[in-house]
Write a structure and sequence with these properties.
β12 and β13 form a beta hairpin. The strands form four sheets. Strands 5-6-7-8-9-12-13-14-15-16-17-18 form a twelve-stranded antiparallel barrel. Strands 1-2 form a two-stranded parallel ribbon. The protein has a two-stranded antiparallel sheet with strand order 3-4. It has four helices and 18 strands. The protein has 477 residues and is mostly beta strands.
Length: 477
């Protein structure tokens, strides 16, 4: 009995469930279901399309528009653009009265600029208490621009210059008070009685002549034991130089050039391979250079240049007693008349002197009877030869770094048949005040030079010396 009742209850539940599902399916597919999306709610449609509906004053806003419960929904769903809030510009500040006084030139200013389409400097600030800062900035900018433009366009009307006025301009101080939005300007008055000068007067002597003395002693040494596997000879090499330059101070005498340089270089090297001489002369030159100039225009001067050089010691060929050079053999004197260009850069790291002498006289001297005069282009039986032509000289001094300097001298002479040139280059590397390393390269050209047997050297000659040693310099400040 119990089993039959249970079966009837289960069957009733199944039938009820099926009926509910069928009713739900029929409703979802019917036209009355608003969730199908096929038809809108007819009551809502009638409310929106009813033109004969009457409304009370409570249903209308102040503009007579119907107040609907769906207004918030329309505002959220419809895309509407609101008009931008209008800019609130600052008032135009009056220009300072000093602008309308006689103009005084003080300096050329690089004016600050603003973007042409950026209104930010001219609109009110986010906080009204800061508006006065923008107003004063605009006033100052307008004053600077008007003053600069007036001075550039009306130069003849600017009669005063602040640097040539008899009295210096007064000094002022500005105090800003944010609480009252004001700026107080006060003159700074200095009591001269309170000024105490602690430094005394210095007796400055005017120096018309500038001296530069440079002395160097450099050497190299090598010791090789008798059983050294590569062989070789002991040797000692020494180089000494002295240079004295004197010139007129152009700060006080800009119309003249007066300069004289005396220089002597000597180099001695031991010669263990020479069976006759214990040492050889590797360098021996005494030289004097002088320049006199009168300013012509700009950096050009009418000038007279003189040069004299000779050797002081006897120099022999290896393993012989045959002289190669001696005092005043050769000796050379050159005098030229022309123009000189003088330049020094503002940093005083580069100086350049270039001389061109269309009229030049060159004298060669050979006084020692033991040396053939033909070695120096002098005819037999004569001790001198005179040549007329032109010469040019370029002198350069360049400070490459605080301890590295490069100096160069190029001299050319020609009588339009014979040509002679000397190009001296010196690189000096200062280790400190007393020690330095120097590289000297001397290139020479002589069209009278005879070719050397078993070599390719003819008119061109070369000397290169690398040395290390002591140095001392003295300069007139």
């Amino acid at each position: 009995m119990t089993t039959g009742i249970h079966r009837l209850m289960i069957l009733a539940v199944i039938v009820a469930t099926a009926a509910i599902a069928s009713a739900q399916t029929a409703y979802e597919t019917s036209d009355e279901n608003p969730n199908t999306g096929r038809y809108p709610d007819r009551k809502l449609l009638e409310l929106l399309e009813d033109e004969e509906s009457t409304f009370t004053e409570e249903d209308l806003d102040e503009n007579g528009t119907l107040i609907s419960a769906f207004d918030d929904m329309w505002a959220d769903t419809l895309a509407t653009e609101s008009e931008p809030e209008p800019l609130r510009f600052l008032p135009v500040a009056p220009l300072p009265s000093i602008l309308f006084m006689p103009m005084v030139y003080d300096e050329f200013m690089h004016l600050d600029s603003i973007a042409p389409f950026d209104p930010e400097p001219f609109v009110e600030a986010q906080y009204a208490d800061l508006d006065w800062i923008k107003i004063e900035a605009n006033r100052a900018r307008a004053y600077r621009e008007l003053k600069q433009r007036y001075m550039l366009d009306n130069i003849e009307d600017v009669r005063y210059n602040i640097y040539t006025m008899p009295k210096p301009p007064k000094k002022y101080t500005a105090t800003v008070d944010p609480s009252t939005e004001s700026i107080t300007v006060k003159e700074i008055i200095t009591d001269k009685k309170q000024i105490v000068a602690d430094a005394g007067f210095t007796d400055v002597t005017r120096k018309n002549w500038l001296h530069n003395i440079d002395g160097r002693l450099q050497f190299s040494q090598a010791y090789i034991s008798p059983n050294w596997y590569q062989g070789g000879n002991n040797n000692v090499n020494g180089i000494g130089s002295f240079k004295w330059n004197v010139k007129l101070n152009q700060k006080f005498h800009p119309e003249f050039i007066v300069e004289a340089t005396t220089e002597y270089k000597v180099g001695i090297a031991s010669a263990p391979q020479d069976t006759i001489h214990a040492y050889n002369i590797t360098q021996d030159q005494f030289q004097f250079n002088g320049t006199l100039g009168l300013k012509a225009f700009d950096k050009w001067y009418y000038s007279v240049n003189a040069q004299f050089k000779t050797q002081l010691l006897n120099n022999y060929k290896p393993n012989t007693r045959e002289l190669k050079a001696a005092f005043m053999t050769p000796g050379e004197l050159n005098i030229g008349v022309g123009m000189t260009y003088n330049y020094k850069n503002p940093q005083k790291r580069l100086t350049l002197d270039a001389s061109i002498s269309p009229f030049s006289y060159n004298l060669k001297i050979a006084t020692n009877p033991g040396i053939p005069k033909s070695n120096f282009g002098i005819d037999p039986g004569h001790h001198t030869v005179s040549e007329f032509g032109s010469n040019a000289e370029v002198k350069l001094t360049w400070t490459l770094a605080w301890n590295v300097t490069y100096s160069s001298r190029l001299f050319l002479f020609t009588d339009y048949d014979y040509t002679q040139g000397d190009w001296e280059n010196t690189f000096n590397f200062s280790i400190n005040r007393y020690f330095s390393t120097q590289l000297f390269i001397h290139v020479r050209y002589d069209s009278h030079q005879l070719p050397l047997e078993d070599t390719n050297w003819h008119h061109w000659q070369l000397k290169e010396i690398l040395s290390f040693g002591f140095q001392y310099q003295f300069k007139t400040i």
